[in-house]
Structures are given as C-alpha cells and as structure tokens.
C-alpha cells in the first residue's frame, strides 16, 4: 500500500485524470520508497469550500505503512501540490494533505492484512 485519495471541488475531465493519476502514482510511490504496484490513487469530486470561498481547493489523505516522516511528507506535499496545480488548477495554498502512518494489521489486502 500506500493510498492517496484526493477530494476536490475542481472541475476535471477523464482525459485529465488519465494524465494526472499515473504521475501521482509513480512520483508518490518513489518519494515514499514504496513499490508502485501497491500504490492506490483516487480523485473524488465534492462540493467544498476553503477559507469561505468555493474557488478550487483540495483535501488529500495519504495513508502508508511506514515512510510517513518529515522528509518524505515534504517531498509528497511538493509533488501533490505541483500536480494538482498543473492539472486541476488548485493552488497549493488551497490544498491540505493529511498523512497517516498505519500499522500493517490495520490495512487489508488480498483477503488478509499486511
């Protein structure tokens, strides 16, 4: 695992997601030192406001078994913010990222847990 889930009010097309998702998957896995074949990335559209404004914004969660620390979090934050700005026009100043380091027994996969 890691799992990166982005919730945003920004408009996007399927074509944009086809470009964005592989870049998030590859670059975030690399920043965490994790194999990309475990990386899960999703984008959800929602009605949201940030700071009282409905301008494009995003709330992102990254869960991982290990590799959640200051150094990797800073790398991931830069990657996510850069790509959200490039593809979804969401300013880094309107993006929150929540990092969660999860114990392996709390993540299920392939009919078991890690």
UniProtKB/TrEMBL annotation:
<dbReference type="InterPro" id="IPR001398">
    <property type="entry name" value="Macrophage_inhib_fac"/>
</dbReference>
<keyword id="KW-0413">Isomerase</keyword>
<keyword id="KW-0964">Secreted</keyword>
<dbReference type="GO" id="GO:0005125">
    <property type="term" value="F:cytokine activity"/>
</dbReference>
<dbReference type="GO" id="GO:0005615">
    <property type="term" value="C:extracellular space"/>
</dbReference>
<dbReference type="GO" id="GO:0050178">
    <property type="term" value="F:phenylpyruvate tautomerase activity"/>
</dbReference>
<dbReference type="InterPro" id="IPR014347">
    <property type="entry name" value="Tautomerase/MIF_sf"/>
</dbReference>
<dbReference type="GO" id="GO:0004167">
    <property type="term" value="F:dopachrome isomerase activity"/>
</dbReference>
<dbReference type="Pfam" id="PF01187">
    <property type="entry name" value="MIF"/>
</dbReference>
<comment type="similarity">
    <text>Belongs to the MIF family.</text>
</comment>
<keyword id="KW-0202">Cytokine</keyword>
<protein>
    <recommendedName>
        <fullName>L-dopachrome isomerase</fullName>
        <ecNumber>5.3.2.1</ecNumber>
        <ecNumber>5.3.3.12</ecNumber>
    </recommendedName>
</protein>
């Amino acid at each position: 695992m890691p799992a990166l889930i982005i919730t945003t009010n920004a408009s996007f097309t399927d074509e944009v997601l086809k470009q964005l998702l592989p870049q998030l998957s590859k670059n975030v896995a690399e920043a965490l030192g994790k194999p990309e074949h475990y990386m899960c990335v999703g984008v959800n559209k929602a009605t949201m406001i940030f700071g009282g404004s409905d301008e494009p914004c995003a709330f992102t969660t990254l869960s991982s078994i290990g590799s959640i620390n200051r150094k990797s979090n800073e790398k991931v934050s830069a990657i996510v913010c850069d790509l959200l700005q490039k593809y979804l026009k969401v300013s880094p100043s309107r993006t929150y990222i929540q990092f969660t380091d999860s114990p392996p027994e709390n993540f299920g996969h392939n009919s078991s847990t890690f």
